[in-house]
Structure formats: structure tokens, C-alpha cells
Specification:
The complex is a heterodimer of chains A (107) and B (121). Helix content of chain A is 0%, strand content 52%. Chain A is an all-beta fold and 107 residues long. Classes of the chains: A mainly beta (107), B mainly beta (121).
Chain lengths: 107, 121
């Protein structure tokens, strides 16, 4: 199975700050990478798919980049509603595997 | 609006069975692959099983293969997960999720609210 190593495990950011979360795959996943946000007690919401495509309705301050084995999610200007857990998903090879998650809090 | 509503969870003893359902609405269910994904308390996400739109292709995680069966009824817009020989490590919040279709890669674009399964004596 492809292992997804996500970092950092937790992050504290000030309002308006730009932050990045990284995911590294154990092998090339050819941009088959999605990012999700999960707020407390809620189901995951898709933010980014195909590494850099913004899901409809997601604010433009979210962006994704990367290729090969290295990918990142950037939030340009932290907002209060961005608090939550974030995780990546590789969909290049079965089984689909998730990163371990990043807990993002407001400083 | 896409909606996925899971049901059928609960407390069950080890070795027993349970069947989860996921009722879909707001889209043409028969056009989409569907999945079950679980999240154990305080843990990360684990993909469990997937089924193609016409049930032609079915895949399972090694941790549930031989014990769980995914199925669907397109006439009823419903996805199922039959779970047998349940173990304590199957305790989790189970989500049904739709496979995204905007590109060829595998991802999930909509998730239900989840249903809790607790395996304990």
C-alpha cells in the first residue's frame, strides 16, 4: 500500500496568516491527491482534488500544489472558520490511503 | 443537493453481524461508484470497500476482506455494508462516500454524516 506521511500533526496560526500542510507519498502518485477539511463532529469536506483543482464552492484562499511524491495545501490568510482537521488522500493506486491528519487551530 | 444518510449502526457483540445502509439523494445514484470509509475513535481514516456504479467492480481493504460485503440497490438509491464476524477493532464511525468523477483519479467528493458501530461484549 502507498503510505502517506502528513506534516505537521498540529499547527497554530494567527488570523490572516498563510499556512502550509504537506503530504509525502511513499511512491509517485501522479497528482492523484485530494485534500479534505473536517470540522469537529462533521463529515469531511473536499477542498482540492487532482492535487491543485479547487472543488466548487471552496474559497480561493485554499490552493494545492505538488507532483510526484510531494504535495502541499496552502491557506492564504487564515480565517476563523478554517479551524479543523485537514488530511490528504492518495487515489493513484488501490487501496486509497489517507494521511494521518493535521489539526489546525487559531493562535 | 447531494445527500448521503447512513443508518443501521449500534452496539454489537464480537462475532455478531450488522448491516449498514446509506440512502442517497440529490444525484443519479446509478451513475456513481460508492464507498465505505471508517474512522476509529481518535484515529485516522481508513477506506473499507468500494463498488462501481453497476456493481461490476468491488474491492475491499485487507482488514475486512472475507467478513464484510458491499452491495447496492440502484432502484432504491441505497448502498449497503453487511458486516459479519465483527471484532473490537471494527469499532468506528462508518461513512459512505461518493466517488468523485471530475477526473480519472480516485477520490471522494461527498460524504455522509457517518454512523457509529461499537463492537463490545
Amino acid at each position: 500500500d502507498i503510505q502517506m506521511t502528513q506534516s505537521p500533526a498540529s499547527l497554530s496560526a494567527s488570523l490572516g496568516e498563510t499556512i502550509s500542510i504537506e503530504c509525502r507519498a511513499s511512491e509517485d502518485i501522479y497528482s492523484n491527491l485530494a485534500w479534505y477539511q473536517q470540522k469537529s463532529g462533521k463529515s469531511p469536506q473536499l477542498l482540492i482534488y487532482a492535487a491543485n483543482r479547487l472543488q466548487d464552492g471552496v474559497p480561493s484562499r485554499f490552493s494545492g500544489s505538488g507532483s510526484g511524491t510531494q504535495y502541499s495545501l496552502k491557506i492564504s490568510g487564515m480565517q476563523p472558520e478554517d479551524e479543523g482537521d485537514y488530511f490528504c488522500l492518495q487515489g493513484s493506486k488501490f487501496p486509497p490511503t489517507f494521511g494521518s491528519g493535521t489539526k489546525l487551530e487559531i493562535k | 443537493e447531494v445527500q448521503l444518510v447512513e443508518s443501521g449502526g449500534g452496539l454489537v457483540q464480537p462475532g455478531r453481524s450488522l448491516k449498514l445502509s446509506c440512502l442517497a439523494s440529490g444525484f443519479t445514484f446509478s451513475n456513481y461508484g460508492m464507498n465505505w470509509i471508517r474512522q476509529a475513535p481518535g484515529k485516522g481514516l481508513e477506506w473499507v470497500a468500494s463498488i462501481s456504479s453497476s456493481s461490476s467492480y468491488i474491492y475491499y481493504a485487507d482488514t475486512v476482506k472475507g467478513r464484510f460485503t458491499i452491495s447496492r440497490d440502484n432502484a432504491k438509491n441505497t448502498l449497503y455494508l453487511q458486516m459479519t464476524s465483527l471484532r473490537s477493532e471494527d469499532t468506528a464511525l462508518y461513512y459512505c462516500a461518493r466517488r468523485g468523477s471530475s477526473y480519472r483519479g480516485y477520490y471522494f467528493d461527498y460524504w455522509g454524516q457517518g454512523v457509529m458501530v461499537t463492537v463490545s461484549s
